[in-house]
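does this look right to u?? NAP version
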Amino acid sequence: MSTVNSAGTFKLGNHNVNRLGYGAMQLAGPGVFGPPKDPKAALAVLREAVASGVNHIDTADFYGPHVTNQIIREALHPYPDDLVLVTKISARRGADGSWIPALSRNELIQAVHDNLRNLGLEVLDVVNLRSMFNVHHPAEGSIEAPLTVLAELQQQGLVRHIGLSNVTPTQIAQGRKLCDIVCVQNHYNVAQRAEDALIDDLARDGIPYVPYFPLGGFTPLQSSTLSDVAARLGVTPMQVALAWLLRRSANILLIPGTSSVAHLRENLAAAQLTLAPSVVQELDGIAV
Ligand SMILES: NC(=O)c1ccc[n+]([C@@H]2O[C@H](COP(=O)([O-])OP(=O)(O)OC[C@H]3O[C@@H](n4cnc5c(N)ncnc54)[C@H](OP(=O)(O)O)[C@@H]3O)[C@@H](O)[C@H]2O)c1
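got this back:
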């Protein structure tokens, strides 16, 4: 059994994926814009992830833009049969690196074709529609129009499964009336726990919840509790943060991002870290 397997699996679309996966956003240049400083390191991270048992990779064609998908293709194509590549659509990048909503019918169709071309695929396994009523956090508003376009692309055979990102419970309910929703990707980690109830609701329905910024994102989590626990257990604070998420709910799938093979190895080793109930209680106190 590989290290990654020790965290178990959960169904994502047609596949049972290992709960410890990988998020590819950090492979682009600074600010998720342009090429990486060290392209060889980016290829090495992806190859090491898959060789270690990762079979769930999160990406988007607007990372770079195009760069991250092109690196994934170069590193891993032809893809292993069990690898689930999850991408997301609904934004484009300005010349200055800004994130611009791109939710018109033509933009969504273009985004699916861009992902297909840059990943070298004929069908995208999972496409998350990312709501953009607020770029930084879920905000109410109808997702019916863009989701209907994505469902049409699914019917045309270009997309196998549909997920949602940056969405409210109301939008998830609306989405589930329009089509099958196979995963939800929102902001959550040991310190940011606003979505505890949503995670439990999705768990009851067997829908994976994929927290983005599991390590805190661009400014990784810093907490004396996390550091104290890590020191006592002889592991790193990032490993504790990931182990806490794995224990939080069986439907949580992890996609920690890194541009470093050393950090990747450290993160994947969290699959083997079991936290005692008293430690979990201590970590629960970190929530802001
Ligand atoms: N749906 C959405 O709106 C959305 C938004 C953001 C992200 N995402 C997805 O979620 C994935 C995860 O989010 P993320 O990558 O932004 O944030 P993250 O996984 O919370 O953290 C990544 C940051 O932590 C650092 N890091 C990783 N492992 C480390 C370790 N072991 N020790 C110390 N530092 C470590 C990385 O730097 P190094 O490169 O130096 O390791 C990077 O700065 C992304 O890759 C992307 O696929 C989705």
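The chain has ten helices and ten strands. idk if thats expected tbh
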